[in-house]
Specification:
Elements: E1 4-8, E2 14-20, H1 21-27, E3 30-40, E4 44-50, E5 61-62, E6 65-68, H2 75-87, E7 97-109, E8 112-124, E9 138-145, H3 146-155, H4 165-176
GO molecular function: hydrolase activity; isomerase activity
Protein name: Isopentenyldiphosphate isomerase
Keywords: Hydrolase, Isomerase
């Protein structure tokens, strides 16, 4: 789905310009996104298998919820909206725990340079919470033991979205510190 996003400079500051997400990707312009990692107190992490029709990393396992921040939307409200859209859960912005902002760049295709500032959060969620995946974005949702996820990261498992290990290691470390 194409949506309007705010354009950022290389340091993550707003430029005052907004474009459709597809244009930001085509032109390789920075824009804000959110990543929300849901975990439970028993050492499980919720992963989503990306939809088969996604333009980037289809059917790869990824963060619980990820999405673009809409033009004029705050980071925390965008995170709440994305969780509701992708996994069907209403969450409280006050319970989001921001752990990092990662500057990323992925050249997916000749005309698809994805440059983002990923605002990364943890969210404690019970595994008993009913989930409703967004059919157009998510193939599957599954709770994985954190140890299995750590092994995937360590071995650069081919089913996992390729990211710098430091990003995954930061998330794992932050979850472990809360268990």
């Amino acid at each position: 789905m194409d949506e309007w996003v705010d354009i950022l400079d290389a340091e993550g500051n707003p430029t005052g310009q907004s474009l459709l997400k597809s244009e930001a990707h085509r032109l390789g312009l920075y824009h804000p996104t959110v990543h929300i990692w849901c975990y439970d107190k028993n050492g499980f992490v919720l992963l989503q298998q990306r939809g088969r029709n996604k333009s980037s990393f289809p059917l790869k396992w990824d963060v619980s919820v990820a999405g673009h921040i809409g033009t004029g939307e705050t980071i925390s409200l965008g995170a709440v909206r994305e969780v509701q859209e992708e996994i069907g859960v209403k969450i409280s912005a006050e319970l989001l725990e921001k752990i990092a902002v990662f500057k990323t760049e992925h050249q997916h295709a000749k005309n698809f340079l994805d440059r983002e500032f990923n605002h990364t959060f943890l969210y404690h969620l019970s595994r008993q919470t009913p989930l409703q995946k967004q059919e157009s974005e998510v193939e599957r949702l599954e709770w994985f033991p954190l140890e299995r996820f750590k092994q995937w990261v360590k071995t650069k498992h081919s089913d996992l979205v390729p990211n710098l290990n430091q990003r995954y290691e930061k998330v794992i470390s932050e979850i472990e510190s809360r268990l």
